[in-house]
Amino acid sequence: MSDENIDKTALQEFIQQHSALWWWVPEAAKPNLSLNSIVEAILNYGEIEDIKKLFEIIGIKKVAEIFFEATENRQRTNYSPVIQNFFTLYFKRHA
Questions:
Q1: What is the pLDDT of residues 60-69, one digit of tens each?
Q2: Burial level of 94, CB count in 10 A (0-12/13-18/19+)?
Q3: Per the structure, how many domains does the chain have?
Q4: Mind spelling out the 3-state secondary structure of 30-92?
Q5: Containing structural domain, residue 57
Q6: Residues 67-86: pLDDT tens digits?
């Protein structure tokens, strides 16, 4: 799924609902968050329902692509080790 196929309105509502995850970002800048930042925050700190909603809005394949881009062949990532291990296994099976 390319970025053009993402429902931008739903994504903006999703960002607003989870605004506290980006507490350091000024409110005016939150609509411009990158997909990488959104995926990272939700996978690291979101509830299962948040993750399901993210998959609905962006698509599981796009989320997996963003996740693997940020984690594969990197010494340092912003994902906790437990989250990184879980989603590596999850996406290899389901995406």
A1: 999 999 999 9
A2: exposed
A3: 1
A4: HHHCCHHHHHHHHHHHCCHHHHHHHHHHHCHHHHHHHHHHHHCCCCCCCCCHHHHHHHHHHHH
A5: 3-94
A6: 999 998 888 889 999 999 99
